[in-house]
Design goal:
- The protein is mainly α.
- It folds into two domains: 259 residues, MetI-like fold, CATH 1.10.3720.10; 294 residues, MetI-like (MetI-like fold), CATH 1.10.3720.
- 74% of the residues lie in helices and 1% in strands.
- It contains 24 helices and two strands.
- The chain has a two-stranded antiparallel sheet.
- Strand 1 and strand 2 form a beta hairpin.
- Helix 1 packs across helix 16, helix 4 crosses helix 7 and helix 12 crosses helix 18.
- The two termini are 31 Å apart.
């Protein structure tokens, strides 16, 4: 009976699968292929372009490359280690202990994921810059010294680690809450101390998650743009991303050199993702069985105040301080440290004045257009692709899953470079560079994996009998999809839409290569305003953006609780 219904709808599903496959190949594979193509050509975009390994030979033959490579490894590894220590430590206190203030743990994780990375970087520059840093001003008033200098490799590592530590926290919470506590209890019953049980059992079981999280944080960090550009460049600390950006901003642009470095970053990212996938498939440290269990909370005793203080301090550093400095700066005509005199200058003038900046007005409009368009496209595309992968019986549907996961493995900065190169070299009857459409293409490419998560989770809860009954009643595939799946998937589709909108508002690593004058989005506007020293305008725009994104996330969470037909 099931094969009969599959055959009846095959005529509609095959074109959809073919169309979805072509779209995914175009979005995910073509940009990466174009970047690699450019890396193996001299004179890229010129009439005398030819195949060559000269770009790689020049890159590896330049002694400065190895200093660049070392800086990138130190930066990525330093961020991964610090973020892992902070994220997994907070997750352990949150999930496995009776520490006070544990409720702050999830807030500490969610807010930095919402705040755009460039805003977080700007906030820490407001706090720790040697010239304008608020913490330095306070320290100078109290101690007659300015001890903080964010313009250094340790400063880069700290700022990026505080922004990505919540990613480690979320992965660690999933690990600690799924551990079977019987192994720890058996170790303690055998005479091991709580510390020994934690070191030899808990950490051993969490080792795959720690390694996987560290690799993902490393990949995310070496491909990030905000911290290396805003902090690393003034500090004369170059990494791969700043070298790629500098090569494309040079005159004439060094397309081949940028592509060659991009190829090296791609190899590092692909190797890391492959290793993570191999760890996940191995499953040698799995502890969740069919038995019911509840992870045991460790009683900290006299150490509870210490643990609570650690949670509060981490929450203050990661959430309170960056947001507070943005709010404070947005209420002053010029940047200054807190004081009684400064209180007399507080006003909302910056919020009114920021609308007089043409760049801010245009960037907000552009971000609204590109994010909403990308959200709508991702929602429609992933709904169809999820149906094909989960509900159809078409051979080869697994290929769509592979293609969907590709944007996760490829850093967004490389997607941006690849998309730029493709639309500069492709013999298309239309030109997208210099338009908002090319930004929409980039945001759609980056957002597809997240849209698939929501669409697939919703479709998995819908039984096939509903569609089979509609088929028996004579409904076409289009009628079945629109009248059965779309209404039932509406919470999932809305969550996919809003998540893509948030991603588009936050994204800068790809947008920095795709925008042109007149097509700036909010993240680019913040970058330009910082370059021009418009600090109060940045603070006001940042506060407005944070409130907007927090509202969107609240909608996503509300819809997330109602995903699927089983939610009430």
């Amino acid at each position: 009976m099931r094969s009969f219904f599959a055959n009846q709808s095959r005529s509609a599903e095959v074109p959809l699968m073919a169309g979805a496959s072509l779209i995914l190949v175009y979005l995910a594979v073509v940009p990466v292929g174009t970047m690699l193509y450019a890396s193996f050509h001299t004179g890229f975009l010129s009439n005398d372009a030819q195949w060559s390994v000269a770009n790689y030979a020049h890159t590896f033959g330049d002694p400065a490359f190895y200093r660049l490579f070392a800086n990138t490894l130190v930066y990525g590894a330093g961020v991964a280690v610090l973020a892992l220590a902070a994220g997994f430590g907070l997750a352990f206190l949150y999930a496995r202990t009776d520490a006070p203030f544990r409720g702050l743990g999830m807030t500490t994780a969610l807010v930095p994921l919402i705040v755009p990375g460039i805003l977080n970087t700007v906030a820490w520059l407001f706090l720790t810059s040697p010239r304008i840093g608020m913490l330095n001003s306070i320290a100078e008033a109290l101690l007659h010294a300015r001890p903080f200098n964010v313009y250094s490799m340790p400063g880069m590592i700290f700022v990026q680690a505080m922004h990505v530590a919540p990613t480690a926290f979320i992965m660690a919470v999933a690990t600690f809450t799924s551990m079977d506590p019987s192994m720890e209890e058996a170790a303690i019953a055998s005479g091991a101390s709580s510390l020994a049980a934690f070191r030899r059992v808990t950490l051993a079981l969490a080792q795959p998650a720690i390694v996987a999280s560290g690799l993902l944080l490393f990949i995310q960090s070496i491909a990030s743009f905000e911290v290396p550009q805003l902090i690393g460049v003034p500090a004369n600390v170059s990494v791969f991303t700043t070298q790629i950006y500098g090569a494309l901003q040079a005159f004439p642009p060094n397309y081949g050199g940028a592509a060659a470095i991009g190829g090296i970053v791609l190899v590092l990212a692909a190797a890391g993702v492959a290793f993570v996938n191999r760890l996940n498939r191995a499953g040698r440290h799995a502890t969740v069985t069919g038995k019911a269990f509840r992870p045991r909370r460790i009683e900290l005793g006299r150490y509870r105040p210490v643990a609570g203080a650690a949670i509060v301090i981490f929450f203050t550093v990661v959430v309170v301080m960056p947001l507070a400095v943005l709010v404070w700066s947005s209420l002053l005509p010029g940047f200054e440290a807190p004081s009684l005199a400064a209180l007399h200058h507080l006003s909302f003038a910056n919020y009114a004045q920021m609308w007089t900046y043409p760049l801010i007005r245009q960037s907000l409009v552009n971000s609204a257009i590109t994010s909403v368009s990308a959200g709508a496209i991702v929602t429609v595309l992933t709904a169809i692709v999820a149906y094909v992968t989960l509900k159809s019986r078409i051979p080869g549907a697994w290929l769509l899953d592979v293609l969907v996961s590709l944007p996760i493995a490829v850093p967004s900065i490389l997607m941006g470079v690849g998309i730029l190169f493709w639309y500069l070299v492709a013999p298309l009857p239309f030109h997208l560079y210099g338009t908002l459409t090319i930004l929409i293409v980039g945001f759609v490419t980056i957002g597809i994996p997240y849209g698939m998560r929501y669409a697939s989770s919703g479709l998995a809860q819908i039984r096939d009998e509903l569609e089979e009954a509609a088929t028996v009643s004579g409904a076409s595939w289009t009628e079945r999809f629109l009248r059965i799946y779309v209404p039932l998937l509406m919470p999932s589709l809305m969550a996919a839409f809003l998540t893509t909108v948030i991603i588009a508002f936050r994204e800068i690593s790809a947008a920095i290569f795709l925008y042109s004058q007149g097509t700036e989005v909010v993240s680019i506007a913040i970058f330009d305003l910082w370059s021009n020293g418009q600090y109060p305008a940045i603070a006001a725009l940042g506060c407005v953006l944070v409130v907007l994104l927090l509202g969107l996330v609240a909608l996503v969470q509300r819809l997330g609780g109602r995903i699927g037909i089983g939610a009430q």
